Amino acid sequence: QKEVEQDPGPLSVPEGAIVSLNCTYSNSAFQYFMWYRQYSRKGPELLMYTYSSGNKEDGRFTAQVDKSSKYISLFIRDSQPSDSATYLCASFNTNAGKSTFGDGTTLTVKP
Amino acid sequence: EAGVAQSPRYKIIEKRQSVAFWCNPISGHATLYWYQQILGQGPKLLIQFQNNGVVDDSQLPKDRFSAERLKGVDSTLKIQPAKLEDSAVYLCASSLDGLASSLSYNEQFFGPGTRLTVL
Known about the structure:
The complex is a heterodimer of chains A (111) and B (119).
Chain A: E1 4-6, E2 11-14, E3 19-25, E4 30-38, E5 45-51, E6 54-58, E7 61-66, E8 71-76, E9 85-93, E10 98-101, E11 105-110
Parallel strand pairs in A: 2-11
Antiparallel strand pairs in A: 1-3, 3-8, 4-5, 4-9, 6-7, 7-8, 9-10, 9-11
Chain B: E1 5-7, E2 10-13, E3 19-24, E4 31-37, E5 44-50, E6 53-56, E7 65-68, E8 75-79, E9 88-95, E10 109-110, E11 114-118
Parallel strand pairs in B: 2-11
Antiparallel strand pairs in B: 1-3, 3-8, 4-5, 4-9, 5-6, 7-8, 9-10, 9-11
């Protein structure tokens, strides 16, 4: 079993839709939870990260972590064609000092 | 601020050949990572350096892969000999200080990657 499992997708939505991307994790030592965006033929770039449980909002993006259920979510409001990319969730174990990535969900936002 | 630089961007080789990738991290970043990203999968950590010392190479196939970070700045990753299953994007990333002792998350900045095809 992978330590970080991500809904595989792909996901295709019309412009303006609300998008929900989800992951689960198994390692209780994970303390930081990140969302990366990866455009085709580019490296991942960090969108946002949260520490422990709770919500974090940044513009149209909201990250949510529920440590009791080991569930990680990213919500995108008013999705735009420029949001079309692969979204990677990741978790960071401060004891081990390393990140573990999910396999990504590819999102297409159609104009 | 310049980002993480990698070269070459693309490489095609035949199996059993050798190949090397180069990475120049963001200036001042102590920690450097090499990841392997197979098509349709997330990045998998191969090796992590803190300055010029290895912190974690537990997932590096040491019979064929090697990496070094001389002088604690640039790094090279080598595969010798390459196998078909090594076809992937090799990503380099750096962070200010990724050591566990920091007890906090340090953002990793990724380079554009090197796309390797082994025929």
